[in-house]
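Hey, I was hoping to borrow your eyes for a little while. I'm sending you its amino acid sequence along with the backbone structure tokens. Take your time with it, there's no hurry, and the full record follows here.
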Amino acid sequence: MYLAIAVAVHLILAYFLIDWKRWRDYYPTIQFYIISNLMYNFLFFNHTLWAYKPRSPWLNHTFIDLSFSLIMMPIILMIYLRHIPKVFKNALFYISTWVIIFTVVEYFFQRSGLFIYNNGWGIINSAIFNVIMLSVLGIHYRRPLYGILISIPIIAILLYFHHPSFGDLK
């Protein structure tokens, strides 16, 4: 039920807050996010750092994550990217606000049992990851190649600290 409510809320936000004339401007960064998230889910399939824990028997992590990645997150990104400031000081405050929102929402989902952590991951890791993710997405939006290039060492660092063993890979 919460997934249907979450999708409905995001669709309402999309109706009121997205500049649909500019959706093509956001599309490459949305694709970048979706590809990155699908890559994480593929590589960490048997070594999850976090997972959605549904309350309904017909839901699972994969279905929830696909709904999040293909419906909710594109809406969030179009809202986020539309208003990202060009001035560094303002962008720092803007990104910090979004990091707090993402982290607080995740905290409440985790406290309510709808989100679980595994393999040494926790809310602090998520907060740090949110800083990195939202910063890289902002960079990718303005300069896609820089966003991709900066992601490579970040992925290497994340794999170094939270790597699945070779046996965990499919």
User: Anything to note?
Assistant: The first strand starts at residue 50 and ends at 52. The chain has a mean pLDDT of 92. Residues 88-111 form the longest helix (24 residues). Residues 21 and 64 are 28 Å apart (CA to CA).
